[in-house]
From TrEMBL:
It comes from the Eukaryota. GO terms for biological process: tRNA methylation. Keywords: Acetylation, Methyltransferase, RNA-binding, S-adenosyl-L-methionine, Transferase. This is tRNA (guanosine(18)-2'-O)-methyltransferase TARBP1. InterPro entries: Alpha/beta_knot_MTases (IPR029028), ARM-type_fold (IPR016024), SpoU_MeTrfase (IPR001537), TARBP1 (IPR025806), TRM3/TARBP1 (IPR045330), Trm3/TARBP1_C (IPR044748), tRNA_m1G_MTases_N (IPR029026). It comes from Malurus cyaneus samueli. SUPFAM superfamilies: alpha/beta knot, ARM repeat.
Length: 1516
């Protein structure tokens, strides 16, 4: 019997050996049975072997039993051999042995797989001989114990036992399959799949076993559960059973639980076949479980189904919504627009979510609504949601009809969601989400369950600069909500009005202000500043109560009552020195918050009654506040590090108080001036005090506060020029101090040894917890440069009038050079958020030194650029620093001086221009800042710029590259970037309905604004101005050169590629410039335009070229001779471009509008067109016939006698074309080309407008949507206004209403009708996706960038690295092989290979389903090292001295396969980075395999070892 087990692994030899071994000791009947068994290893014993026979087994059976029971005797023999031996021997030896084997197996079964295997073996081998109950037990055990492939064996064995059993035994088998095994393991579906022929028999009724599984609910339960199993094999078995049931139901039989109707037999059959086809396709390699398209379609269908069908509600369904559904909704890509949706439209998922939530909540019982919504909102806080999903979920919540279901816990959950929105850097999305969450609060909160403190705490989580701000619709809605629900809110636990059950808003605010201004009696003088939270809360609630009160038409009594406690404290500040510090801090914080309140809509303060009343009230204690601030800043009252926060509070109050007095009471300005003079003088005295060798904390803090005070005063004087504060006597003393000061003076760290112990610990504690001494020193240096900036702006010479020192006797240039050197030093010591005043000083100094100290200025340029580039990922301070950098580098005087010298500085500035453009490709908005500043300074120079230059516009000509690059600027965005842009556009389209649009500052960081700015700049130029004219001509030539450069580049040029977009932008800009160009210039450049027409161009570019040619000939008909020359080239050059010139002739009536002699031109046109009407190319003939129809109509109208002889021929030809009824698509294409917008509707002169150029024509020519620039963007970009006389703005309505034509896609023409008519699937291959992709068609560059995040369709950890391979055929084959065997990724040297036709021919679309990663050969070392750190084993396919034989090597799970070059193999510098080399054993002489073949062999061996050796089944 050892032979039996050993040879099971080799079926060919095993059958003969088994036959010989068993037949030697068996009677003749046993030998025949053995032979039958050996002929049916795969499907169980044959029919002859299944029949019961008389007699008892011979002596061979006695030997079989110990072997069958004793698996250990086999040692290394495989389990599959043991299973076969048991099955075959039990079948041969009859019922006694089979029954004994089955009982032994059941007795020893303890959950082991071996027990289950033996039970199944007994049942399968001797099932026909077993009585029903024993057979049922064997089946149940075999089914429940089957795991990872054992179920297949169980199913095979059960099938044999079932088929020979009696009716009772069969029933028990079925009961064991679906009543037990279905709940405990996969064995039930295994057995049912094997028994499908018996349970779901084919053929006429009455044949087969007489059983019908469809009548049993357990069968359908198993199928239904199987379709949703995680295990793919279980799903496959369930689909197989469903197929069999479908086939059986389609026959004319009696009805079953599987509902079927004879009347709807065809429809039902089609439905279920389609369903099964979809299920099978989903299982295919092409589509994985993480496919975002399928997920999106599934969610949309589900939401729509629930909305329309009103499915019954259940607790399990609510758990599904809050669990898996919301998990799926967290994927941002699901919220993309569908094809055909306009930019700015709400994505389908966003709309469906709103309807679904409202519908579902309406179906819920009232008592369940609150708990469901609470769980829903809490789910939004338990993970890191991206900005897009949280926005649309918030919008869906806000769209729920008002119902009072949320209490305090719900309010807290919504506040937690608000905190989640702060993670994103997308300010507009963040603000919009806050708006919707506030609306959700107002719609769903039960005010009787929440108190005012809870509501106010929630409101404070909203940022005023992003969402909740006065004068917005949201603020008005909030005021109305508070007014309607006033006195309905739950009473707070700490409320003073204890006799009431509810509270009113006014009562709450009264109490809030009173509690806020209370200070504990035991408060220490030296304490930390209070948190700003309370001040923000009190000021917000005061304003809300005031606006609610104002809506009630009540006088300002309540508002006055709110402010009185604050005014009382403020009035005492100047005279009462014993007010607790905490109380003064809180009162000044509240004062500052109230003064910082701004009105959005009302430019005139008198129109905002609430603010006007507040400001009039607050202006009263101004003198007292200023007296207090002066005392605190100039005496020794600020003595610790923590007091610097108070210093900041006092200094922030000063400009607000100045603004208040200017708006409300200018009579207080003398007090302001006296205060500023006193502050300046006292601060100067403090700074001039000599320092001891070991300064104390108090001394150094006083110096820091004094320098900060001077800086604050300088900023006020810089910003309030109308008050003429610079005329104060103390300003001279300030100038003298700055002139004598040592720049970048660093304060010594104070000594604590002489301080009191309490002060020491207090200061030290603040220093270590608040800010280090280095930050304080940086602040001190920063304030010095603010003062210097003021002095430099006011007194550019700086040394004027102060000659008493040798330092001051230096020349102005030398003094400026010294200050610039100090500025460079300051940039090296200051943190990045404090360099702005240094930039401003350099802006004043560099123009004076650019001629004499160019190298120093270039050093300044380099250092400043280094700082800016290092901040590109720091969102908070980057933009302010960038703006200052641009104002410095691109200052009109700096640009003019550098351009006049044409030296190194000029080259450096141009280098910086291109560096900024390069940064703009990855950080949207950088180029916008540069271009906007330059265009404004060149078109609208300030007074200083006019005085410094003869003409600021000269800089535009010297740096024209800036405008040229701006005209074609724009990257191809990734899909996630386009999604963010689409959502931005959607929010912006909401207008004032979304408060975020009103309160967020417009940053103009959309890349479209770069081109919009450039176009509006060009539109503002005057053709009669000689400088403007020369500039426009220069730009026109440079753009034509750029188009030619793109046409000659080797980069593949396909629809919506970057090259296509650049060419499109070039011709759009040329079209804008065209009306401003004169005849002489066009005469010299029109030839270049014609040459561009001969190039291979996409349809959108062709339209623009044709349009420019038409307009040029329309304006200057004398250029027609140049145009006719275009038809004189040889046919080889014209065959791809002649349609462009024929399209021009289709508008010949417009060209001849300004020509008095039309007949000669018509004659020439007719001669030219007629010869192309006989072209071999069908498309050329169509274009020629369109032109001929137009020209001939003109000839008939003008009665050209010369062509009377041609009249019959031409008219009969045109009539024949109109009436053609031939086969194919000729007639249809003729109709389509005539209906095409360019020939039927478009008018080159009347439709000339910005809207047509940048929006309508790109849309009609099917350019990518992110290339469409709507007029709204021209309106929103206000930095550069269009001239008042500008008239070319909007398209005609008729053109705007058109839809894109498909004529430009001529390859689709012959199939469109067939495609439209084919609405059903017919004979679809399983491996092909049988439905159209519902996502917008993406250009290849974008698709390839997203490959690395493609669907996870296998568990493989194999990465194939083919970066060294450069032949597209090999790469295409490897791509196909890697995809088929489920590699996790293919690494190539360049993604451009994927565009190669040879690659695509070999890959057969595998690149669409396999993650592709680009790693250039030069980057391989870093890539391999990175993968090593991730746990990958680097395996090289190379023959080395220590290489392993492929047949002997065991691949690790995480393997990276590095393939060598076709000729050189793996370079030597990469060999030592490999963990192991594997070679393929060879027998031939050549000793060299193709790299694709080599890679395929190793990929298969890895697959075989890692995947294929897992237990598998021959059954479904």
């Amino acid at each position: 019997m050892e032979v039996v087990l050993a040879t099971r692994c080799c079926p060919a030899a095993g059958r003969a050996a088994l036959l010989r071994a068993l037949s030697a000791s068996l009677p003749p009947s046993g030998r025949r049975r053995c032979a039958c068994c050996c002929s049916a290893w795969r499907g169980g014993p044959p029919a002859a072997a299944r029949r019961r026979r008389g007699g008892r087994p011979g002596s061979g059976a006695g030997r079989c039993r110990p072997l069958l029971r004793g698996a250990r005797a086999a040692g290394a023999v495989r389990r599959r051999g043991r299973r076969g031996a048991r099955c075959g021997t039990a079948c041969i030896c009859g019922a006694p042995l089979a029954a004994r084997l089955a009982r032994d197996a059941l007795a020893s079964w303890r959950g082991r797989r071996a027990g289950a295997e033996e039970a199944g073996g007994g049942a399968g081998g001797g099932g026909a001989a077993l009585e029903g109950r024993l057979l049922s037990r064997c089946v149940a055990r075999a089914g429940t114990g089957a795991e990872e492939g054992e179920g297949e064996a169980a199913a095979a064995l059960v099938a044999g036992g079932y088929c020979g059993a009696g009716a009772t035994a069969r029933g028990r088998v079925l009961w064991g399959c679906w009543a037990r095994a279905g709940r405990r393991g996969p064995g039930g579906r295994c057995a049912l799949s094997a028994l499908a022929d018996e349970l779901l028999p084919r053929g006429p009724a009455g044949t087969g076993s007489g059983l019908d599984a469809r009548l049993c609910p357990g069968f359908w339960r198993l199928v239904q559960e199987g379709l949703t199993e995680r295990d793919g094999l279980c799903r496959k078995r369930a689909r197989y059973l469903l197929k069999r049931a479908l086939d059986l139901s389609a026959l004319p039989r009696e009805s079953s639980l599987f509902w079927w109707s004879a009347d709807k037999n065809e429809q039902l059959l089609q439905f279920w076949e389609t369903y099964i086809l979809i299920m099978e396709t989903l299982e295919g390699n092409q589509v994985g479980s993480e496919n975002k398209t399928l997920m999106k379609e599934g969610i949309l269908h589900f939401l729509e189904l629930y909305e329309t069908k009103h499915l019954p509600n259940s607790l399990g369904f609510s758990e599904f919504v809050i669990g898996p559904l919301m998990d799926a909704l967290s994927e941002s890509s699901l919220y993309s627009r569908t094809p055909g949706q306009l930019i700015g439209a709400c994505p389908p998922l966003g709309m469906r979510l709103q309807k679904f939530l409202a519908t579902y909540l309406a179906l819920l019982p009232e008592e369940e609504k609150g708990s469901f919504l609470l769980k829903f909102i809490q789910k939004m806080t338990n993970r890191h949601w991206c900005a897009v999903p949280i926005l649309f979920l918030s919008m869906a919540l806000a769209s729920i009809p008002a119902c009072k279901v949320l209490g305090a816990e719900g309010l807290h959950a919504l506040r937690d969601v608000l905190q989640c929105t702060m993670i994103t850097h997308q300010i507009l999305l963040r603000g919009a989400a806050q708006c919707y969450l506030l609306q959700t609060t107002m719609h769903l909160t039960d005010v009787e369950k929440v108190s005012f403190p809870e509501v106010s705490s929630f409101l404070l989580s909203l940022r005023p600069e992003e969402s909740l701000r006065r004068d917005t619709l949201l603020w008005t809605e909030l005021c109305s909500w508070l007014q309607v629900n006033d006195r309905c809110f739950r009473k707070s636990v700490t409320a003073d009005f204890k006799h009431q059950e509810t509270s009113s808003l006014c009562q709450y605010v009264h109490s809030l202000v009173g509690e806020y201004l209370k200070a504990p009696a035991s408060e220490r003088e030296n304490c930390f500043m209070p948190d700003w939270f309370e001040a923000k809360l009190v000021s917000t609630m005061i304003l809300l109560a005031a606006d609610v009160d104002g809506k009630s038409n009540i006088e300002w009594i309540e508002l006055e009552a709110f402010l009185n406690p604050l005014l009382d404290v403020l009035m005492k500040l100047g005279s009462n020195a014993y007010i607790p510090t905490l109380k003064t801090d809180k009162s000044l914080q509240l004062l500052l918050k109230l003064l910082q309140t701004r009105s959005l809509k009302c430019s005139n303060t008198q129109d905002d009654e609430v603010l006007l009343f507040i400001w009039k009230s607050l202006v009263t204690p101004v003198e007292s506040v200023l007296e207090f601030v002066l005392r605190r800043l100039t005496t020794n009252e600020l003595s610790s590090v923590g007091d610097l926060d108070r210093c900041d509070l006092y200094l922030a109050l000063i400009p607000e108080i100045v603004n208040l007095c200017l708006k409300i009471n200018r009579k207080k300005m003398p007090s302001i001036k006296n205060f500023l003079s006193s502050l300046i003088n006292a601060s100067i005295r403090n700074l001039q005090e000599s320092n001891s060798e070991k300064p104390k904390v108090k001394e150094q803090i006083r110096k820091v506060a004094s320098m900060a005070s001077l800086a604050a005063v300088c900023e006020i004087m810089d910003g309030k020029l109308e008050v003429h504060l610079e005329s104060l006597p103390s300003v001279d003393a300030l100038k003298k101090l700055i002139s004598f000061s040592q720049f970048n003076e660093v304060l010594k760290k104070p000594s604590y040894t002489e301080e009191k112990q309490s002060i020491f610990f207090h200061s030290l504690g603040e220093e270590t917890t608040s800010r280090g001494w280095g930050k304080i020193v940086a602040r001190y240096v920063h304030d010095q440069w603010i003062c210097l900036r003021f002095v430099l702006n006011l007194f550019p010479t700086l040394a004027q009038g102060y000659e008493e020192t040798s330092d001051m006797s230096l020349s102005t240039a030398e003094r400026s050079k010294k200050i610039l050197q100090s500025a460079l030093e300051a940039l090296t010591i200051l943190p990045s958020d404090q360099v702005l005043p240094v930039f401003d000083c350099m802006k004043v100094l560099v123009p004076k030194l650019l001629d004499s100290s160019e190298s120093l200025c270039i050093e300044a340029f380099d250092l400043v650029w280094k700082i800016i580039s290092s901040l590109s990922n720091t969102q908070l301070i980057f933009w302010a620093n960038l703006k200052a950098f641009v104002q410095f580098i691109f200052d009109s005087e700096v640009l003019a001086i550098a351009a006049s010298a044409k030296g190194q500085a000029y080259a450096k500035i141009k280098e910086i221009i291109f560096k900024l453009i390069d940064v703009s490709t990855t950080k949207t908005g950088v180029f916008n800042v540069v271009l906007s500043h330059c265009c404004q300074s060149w078109l609208f120079p300030t007074v200083d710029e006019r005085s410094a230059l003869t003409n600021a516009f000269l800089n535009a000509g010297n740096y024209s590259e800036l405008i040229t690059e701006a005209c074609v600027f724009g990257t191809v965005f990734r899909r996630d970037q386009r999604l963010i842009q689409d959502v931005h556009a959607f929010i912006e389209n909401l207008g004032e309905k979304c408060a975020a649009n009103v309160v967020t500052e417009s940053t103009n960081r959309d890349d479209h604004y770069v081109r919009v700015c450039a176009v509006k700049f060009l539109c503002s130029l005057d053709g009669s101005n000689i400088l403007h004219k020369m500039f426009m001509e220069d730009i026109f030539i440079k753009l034509l050169d750029k188009d030619e450069l793109v046409s000659r580049s080797r980069t593949r040029y396909y629809a919506n590629s970057l090259q296509h977009r650049i060419k499109n932008r070039v011709w759009q800009t040329l079209l804008v410039l065209l009306p401003k160009l004169d005849q002489n210039f066009l005469c010299g450049t029109l030839d270049k335009v014609f040459q561009a027409g001969f190039s291979t161009n996409q349809s959108s570019v062709k339209y623009f070229i044709e349009w420019i040619v038409i307009l040029s000939l329309h304006k200057y008909p004398q250029f027609l001779d140049k145009f006719w020359d275009c038809f004189c080239y040889d046919e080889e050059k014209l065959k791809t471009s002649i349609c462009t010139f024929l399209s021009v002739l289709a508008h010949f009536d417009i060209i001849l509008q300004n020509t008095s002699e039309k007949k000669p031109a018509l004659k020439k046109a007719l001669i030219v067109v007629l010869q192309w009407c006989f072209s071999h190319n069908f498309s050329v003939r169509l274009y020629a016939l369109v032109a001929l129809k137009k020209i001939w109509a003109m000839c008939r109208m003008l009665h050209v006698e010369e062509f009377e002889t041609l009249t019959p021929v031409i008219e009969s030809s045109l009539q024949q074309v109109e009436n053609m009824h031939g086969t194919g698509n000729a007639r249809r294409n003729w109709q389509r080309i005539q209906d095409h917008f360019f020939f039927a509707t478009f008018h080159p002169v009347e439709d000339y407008s910005l809207e047509t150029i940048f929006y309508t024509l790109p849309r009609l020519s099917e350019l990518a949507e992110d290339e469409w620039i709507s007029l709204s963007k021209f309106d929103r970009f206000t930095d550069i206004p269009l001239p008042p006389a500008f008239q070319w703005y909007r398209s005609q309505t008729e053109l705007c209403d058109l839809k894109p034509s498909d004529w430009s896609q001529q390859d689709m023409g012959s199939h469109s009708a067939e495609a439209d008519s084919q609405t059903e699937w017919t004979d679809v291959q399983k491996k092909i996706i049988p439905w159209k992709n519902s996502t917008p068609s993406l250009d290849l560059e974008m698709a390839f960038q997203d490959r690395a995040v493609k669907l996870g369709k296998s568990n493989s950890r194999l990465i194939v690295v083919a970066s060294l391979i450069d032949k597209p055929t090999n790469l295409g084959g490897l791509c196909r092989t890697s995809e088929i065997f489920g590699a996790s990724a293919l690494v190539v040297g360049s993604l451009h290979y994927i565009q190669d036709k040879q690659f695509q021919h070999l890959s057969v679309s595998a690149e669409q389903w396999l993650p592709l990663v680009e790693v250039k050969p030069s980057q391989l070392v870093d890539y391999l090292q990175q993968k090593k750190t991730e746990g990958y084993t680097i395996i090289g396919v190379e023959q080395t001295a220590k290489s392993f034989d492929l047949t002997e090597y065991c691949f690790p799970e995480k393997s990276l396969l590095l393939l060598g070059n076709e000729h050189e193999g793996i370079p030597a510098n990469l060999i030592h980075h490999l963990d192991v080399c594997v070679e393929i054993p060879q027998q031939g002489i050549i000793r060299s395999l193709n790299v694709h073949v080599s890679g395929a062999l190793l990929i298969w061996e890895y697959t075989r070892q890692q995947i294929c050796e897992q237990p598998c089944s021959i059954f479904l």
